[in-house]
Amino acid sequence: MQKIVPHLWFDKEAAEAAEFYASVFPESRVMSVTTLEDTPSGDADMVIFELWGQKFMAISAGPIFKPNPSISFMVNFDPLLFDGSKESARAKIDEVWNKLADGGSALMPIGEYPFSERYGWVQDKYGVSWQLILTKPEGEPRPPIITSLLFVGDQCGKAEEAINFYCSVFEKSKLGSLHRYPEGHSPDKPGTVMFADFKLEDSWFTAMDSAHQHQFSFNEGISLVVNCDDQEELDYFTQKMSAVREAEQCGWIKDKYGVSWQISPIELEEMMVNGTREQLNRVTQALLPMKRLQIAPLKNAFEGV
């Protein structure tokens, strides 16, 4: 099972959005849709889907939070994924761009940039942001879809510190590339992170600082689910990463950089996907009052004990 899973928050469109994304990206599918009844947001659809080998989760839980570009998804169109054909990769990037841009908005128009001959950053009609890039088939391969963190506002300049912090928390971690801003890129300060990537468990991430004015920051609209094997692991990640006590709810935590995580047992997903309606309702009601998740009461609820 993928250890870290991006989680998207929607008002009512989780299932619709998942179907749309599965139609846009290669090798993609919706895996399950489960309705959680009688939550504070009413009935909420929980969706699990896969895009080009990357697992995602989503929920329809009302208009409380919305995705924004502080967390986006880098999509690598490597010619090696298209039988070595640069032309095929370029054609695919334009095809995907046109679908994502329909009803959305371009944050950086598709075109040629100093770092890539074909790149564009788009916020789609559901508010989720994607960075599409034609990559060169050189160096260590990266997966097609990578979660990307943009450190802005009060967090600008902390990307490198955050990378090192995350790599210290996750036992299986790895630093990748690191490129700093040179002189002459005002308002970005020389030495801050222009682009870096790193690996936590089986997932790659990218991180960047940006000193430009942005009308967004990290929020719960896009969070990261950490699938834990047991209570000991749940407690470890919660204690290591939770920095805002009042943000703890139903396994959700917020770290010291403002990024939201969900520290959750693997068993919970299995209960939600495979349970009967009665089991789902019992687990949901057991889950809602919890701040930090406890596996034993959830299992008891599932089993009707």
From TrEMBL:
Record InterPro entries: Glyas_Bleomycin-R_OHBP_Dase, PhnB-like
Cited CDD domains: PhnB_like
PhnB-like domain sequence ranges: 2-133, 145-263
Top-level lineage group: Bacteria
Name the UniProt record assigns to this protein: 3-demethylubiquinone-9 3-methyltransferase (Glyoxalase superfamily)
